[in-house]
Protein: Glucokinase
Organism: Nonomuraea rhodomycinica
Amino acid sequence: MLTIGVDIGGTKVSAGVVDENGAIVEQALRKTPADRPDLIAETVADVVRELAEGRDIEAVGVGAAGFVDESRSVVRFAPNLAWREEPLQKKISGMVGLPVVIENDANAMAWGETRFGAGRGQSHIVCLTVGTGIGGGLVFDGALFRGHWGMAAELGHMQVVPDGRPCGCGQRGCWEQYASGNALVMEARLIAEEQPERAGILLGLAGGKIEGEEVTEAARQGDEASLAAFASLADWLGQGMADLAAILDPGCFIVGGGVCRASDLFLDRAREAFTRRLTGRGHRPLPEIRLAELGANAGMVGAADLARHR
Amino acid sequence: MLTIGVDIGGTKVSAGVVDENGAIVEQALRKTPADRPDLIAETVADVVRELAEGRDIEAVGVGAAGFVDESRSVVRFAPNLAWREEPLQKKISGMVGLPVVIENDANAMAWGETRFGAGRGQSHIVCLTVGTGIGGGLVFDGALFRGHWGMAAELGHMQVVPDGRPCGCGQRGCWEQYASGNALVMEARLIAEEQPERAGILLGLAGGKIEGEEVTEAARQGDEASLAAFASLADWLGQGMADLAAILDPGCFIVGGGVCRASDLFLDRAREAFTRRLTGRGHRPLPEIRLAELGANAGMVGAADLARHR
Amino acid sequence: MLTIGVDIGGTKVSAGVVDENGAIVEQALRKTPADRPDLIAETVADVVRELAEGRDIEAVGVGAAGFVDESRSVVRFAPNLAWREEPLQKKISGMVGLPVVIENDANAMAWGETRFGAGRGQSHIVCLTVGTGIGGGLVFDGALFRGHWGMAAELGHMQVVPDGRPCGCGQRGCWEQYASGNALVMEARLIAEEQPERAGILLGLAGGKIEGEEVTEAARQGDEASLAAFASLADWLGQGMADLAAILDPGCFIVGGGVCRASDLFLDRAREAFTRRLTGRGHRPLPEIRLAELGANAGMVGAADLARHR
Amino acid sequence: MLTIGVDIGGTKVSAGVVDENGAIVEQALRKTPADRPDLIAETVADVVRELAEGRDIEAVGVGAAGFVDESRSVVRFAPNLAWREEPLQKKISGMVGLPVVIENDANAMAWGETRFGAGRGQSHIVCLTVGTGIGGGLVFDGALFRGHWGMAAELGHMQVVPDGRPCGCGQRGCWEQYASGNALVMEARLIAEEQPERAGILLGLAGGKIEGEEVTEAARQGDEASLAAFASLADWLGQGMADLAAILDPGCFIVGGGVCRASDLFLDRAREAFTRRLTGRGHRPLPEIRLAELGANAGMVGAADLARHR
């Protein structure tokens, strides 16, 4: 039987009909009404109705950025949307007449990769989504781990530098301020501004404004500042994974997210840093560090599967 | 039916016959032959035989400091004893003719507290043993969490200060270098050496050598240096717990270990630091931070119960 | 008798005829040919000829950003212009037929303030020019201190954070990365990006791009992020001045530069931080921390006076 | 004509009759009455009288640890003795009937080295005395630099690590907490305690208590922990000298003090670290870094010469 998975992003809502093998039968897109969060449930319902038309759909799984409660019904707090205690499950379920499960988007991605992507055959997984920030998902004994109140796996918000850079979460020195796409760009900008002689290629490519794509392209062309920014990203990724391995001893890490389009520029170095910084190294097996396989659809597919096994 | 729990410490081996309610029926002690690790199994067998005499014993649980493998049979590496790939289960089982389960000592303590101590009624627990270092135990969904290779919960070895103090694990900047009994004493010694005018009471009490007891007593008498050392301990404890809550979202923390005899000197401040440093604070429930209840017997009782439910 | 002072800035060359009391008799301006550093000497000569016309001029003093050699003739290295071993004195002197003295621009400003501004009556002065970076000038026993090779007083390049932010000088963690106008803007931008709810006023004022003026105006209107950025600036200014006082024990500090137009937003707090962080505080007199008085003309007037007393 | 130099140390008062070439004609010693600071002046007077007997003495120079006022008469504050506003010059002069000059002990050493030791022929010198802490002396234009109130050159108290190790001066993170003999021993002790497998030689030599001599000897024998401690000392020495060069641009550094008996174990590395961390490197001459030459007598000889040229 089929389920529908929905991934609510900051700019678009993407949805798909997914079968029990994780195959996407049909997809549809909507723009996210980001300035009208009260309309998001309606947008989701709309795209679900379109996809459900003429099909036998068992349930709907919805991935959304934010702290989702332990009953998987309510988004308690979303940093990038104006939701506070938003009863998303009830709203959508009422509109579409189907069972609905809400899940944190990084959890949904982690689950998609676990079931149908890089995590197949693994039962203890730490999944990292390295995009503008760092999202996390944990799979223990083959099940998604949500913690006591559904808010586990905010991996990007371990503090790694005391009194470090300010973070969107209100704290300072969080991991995602040093090991995310934003961190990569920030580091490259700082070096380019202060040491332009090391950033000739980058400044040539970027014109006025340095973004991630220019840093990646410049690094590929040998730009010293861009390579230094990737090296910093890699070292911090490795350090944070070593911290997580000390705590969780996973069988593997899965690293995905937009920054991984440039994984050739940092992943090997991140592995080395991880190995060097792992507590007890030499006396324990090393977990694999794998690239995610499902790309942008991981969250949708994962949400659909979570709805199936709700 | 009864089981026997054994706790192998650096100086003594303590064992007890434990019933299904966690009650200790009888206890016995041996000195740890610390310089002859090859004799430890024999010592354990000896005390087990004594206790088992005339009783119907179902199984034996043994808690030992070190990395225990996922089959709970072999101590792969013990930082304080000369064990490397020590097949402790096979050895002891062969000597006593009973089923034997080996467990990391901090895990055994965590389990003891979970079943019969401060963790009763909780299913998602982070347990900290704050002694010379920091030991950790994790309970998820009511079961001890061991990770993929049995080495999870080395909580004291998250890095909290980049390039910080050297740690016994070979890395630098580990949490236990800032939030343990050793850290407390080190901080007090540094202040006393450099700013003796703030450490008059402490220096008066300690004579030549400052240890934990003198720091505690001096703090109780208002010694400024000792109070500063406890404040530092509390702030770092709170910060590390905030990191763990970001990752694990536990329902409660249990804090035990020798340093907790002075919990009145740091636990309230640690709670405040935790609350202040928690990511997403204000939008999520706060886990309780509870004192351990079973004291020095937690490990023995936990090991015995793990043997029962092996 | 009169001398001419010239201040070569990144965008304009400003020159003035100055009498022995530091009074400016006449002024003139030229655009700096920043992309043609070989033409700068000519530009200076041109404006000097214009001002010298019909006057009896004794000598010319020129302030320029860069490392000036101990004979005050050659700019060995200029971070912002393409000069390397530029024989500026010889060039200009040859063109205008007058004695010429070259001086580092921050030194010239320090001397101007010492002779005719905030430093009158003081003989041991540390002068800070807080603009995009931090420039420094030292006056000991009433004379400008140049060090052995003429390169002293690069005060902005003390390291204050190990492995800190990259600096234009090629090192990391330099003071000017934490206590300059650039640092102020960078801190405000980081907070605004990560914690926009604290930066509502600033984001409203700045539109797309946050610069120093918006941070200042927003701070005046109570913007939390902007006030935090000024607080950070103040604390780091105070800390660095405390370091300099440990080394140099000056009778006073003079703080000038563009950021001081907002001195009401940070100077009192900087004084407090200085006092709190001063080694031996309580057992030594406190140097005054004064605002510069001559504004943008300090460098020109200082250079003119250095030419008089060459 | 002859003068007498006196060096008041924590354990002994050493004095000598010195000629105009810095040659010591005769020496004498007394124990420092450290617990009776009121008796120190008398002890100094006593040894001066002994040495002056039958000689024509022009004046007496006295070096003492502490903040000496700008008139070189009063010790305002001594961290290691109970002096506060101690009128040492008046007391001693009254007892011996000779002109007396008081000087900070590190200043006296710097002056001794400048006139008769490693600093001959140099006019801009930064002198470091690396012992339990770091003492400093500055020579500019061939004269001792005292600052406005006589308290300059407290070089050990620049902050190099924000919120770092507590310092005897009441602040945190001071240079001498990272680059002194005490820092060397502290670092070696920490590594030996936490990573004893790297400190086998050191622990074998030291028995119970690790002190500087054991660290030096163990490093010579290849002990890994001791070598790491010397490497850390060297890197921090180099960094601090780079900071001082940015500010003062000296023609040379002189490095002395007890730790220099092991200069073969750190000085080359300190030079490399200095060169790597110097702002503007590649565009400026490098000051020499020289070893002190006068050993333990530098302070006495310097004080005697300061008395001659009072």
Remarks:
- The CA atoms of residues 32 and 89 of chain C lie 17 Å apart.
